[in-house]
Specification:
The protein is α/β, with parallel strands linked by helices. It has 2 domains: 94 residues, 60s Ribosomal Protein L30, Chain: A; 142 residues, 3-Layer(aba) Sandwich (Alpha/beta knot). The protein has 10 helices and 12 strands. The longest helix has 13 residues. The radius of gyration is 20 Å and the shape is elongated. Keywords: Methyltransferase, Transferase. It comes from Lactobacillus porci.
């Protein structure tokens, strides 16, 4: 265990940089903050490098942790590391775990096609977790999974299901080869309406970019195009809301 009280400490400076994608990729670690996320990581036995907390915060931690990885900090350092106004003064640097490939031969999945809003991405992942889905595939251009705003929106769901960045075309080919239907959500009144779909034991559900929808290439690879009827005068639904409706319909 070590103790750090200065924001100018070399280790604190390097950890503070983890709010940037470049440094997350270089180090292979990302930063989580708050009791809920830290305790969920410990429950899931995630690999981590450091647990940073004020003495008061660490005394309130319910899960067992590695004393050798504990770094005691003061409130000034906690404030410096925090991405929120009211820090809970506990942090963890968690190892990024991204497989090079995955065998898409089973389960219920959500595919995110170039989503840009971190809140939407985190909310969709949390919803997929709550509905009992098996995993979420993020296209290479979807917002970074380890973005602090995505982390807050996921609320620990990243530790409960499979998440990976992967080319959607390759994933869809694997799903179809395994006879898992792929449904692309479209803002197209000519597409098959949600209520006309039968329940299926396995599927891959594509959610498109907030502004442009599902890309043409991905739509063409899908088995069906799916439309949620709009009954009022709104032009469309928020991506996370639409995803939630479809995820629970097929759960």
């Amino acid at each position: 265990m070590q103790e750090i009280t200065s924001v100018n400490n070399r280790l604190i400076k390097s950890i503070a940089k983890l709010d940037q994608k470049k440094y997350r990729e270089e180090s292979g670690y990302y930063l989580i903050e708050g009791f809920h996320l830290v305790e969920e990581a410990l429950k899931a036995k995630e690999k981590y490098q450091y647990l940073l907390a004020t003495p008061d915060a660490v005394s309130r931690l319910d899960q067992e942790y590695d004393e050798d990885k504990l770094v005691k900090i003061n409130s000034a350092v906690a404030h410096h590391l925090s991405s929120t106004k009211n820090s809970q003064e506990i942090f963890m640097t968690v190892k990024i775990n991204q497989p090079d490939h995955f065998d898409f031969t089973w389960g219920k999945w959500v595919l995110l096609d170039d989503l840009a809003d971190p809140g939407n991405v985190g909310t969709i992942i949390r919803t997929a977790d709550a509905a009992g889905f098996d995993g979420v595939v993020l296209s290479p251009r979807t917002v970074d999974l380890y973005n602090p705003k995505v982390q807050r929106a996921m609320q620990g769901s990243q530790f409960h299901l499979s998440l990976l960045k992967y080319p959607l075309a390759s994933a869809i080919e694997s799903f179809r080869a395994a006879d898992i239907p792929v449904y692309a959500s479209m803002l197209d009144r000519e597409a098959k309406q949600l209520q006309d779909f039968d329940q299926v034991p396995q599927l891959a559900l594509v959610i498109g970019n907030e502004a442009h929808g599902v890309s043409q290439d991905v739509a063409e690879l899908s088995d069906e195009k799916l439309y949620i009827p709009i009954k009022g005068q709104a032009e469309s639904l928020n991506a996370a809301v639409a995803a939630g409706i479809m995820i629970y319909y097929f759960s």
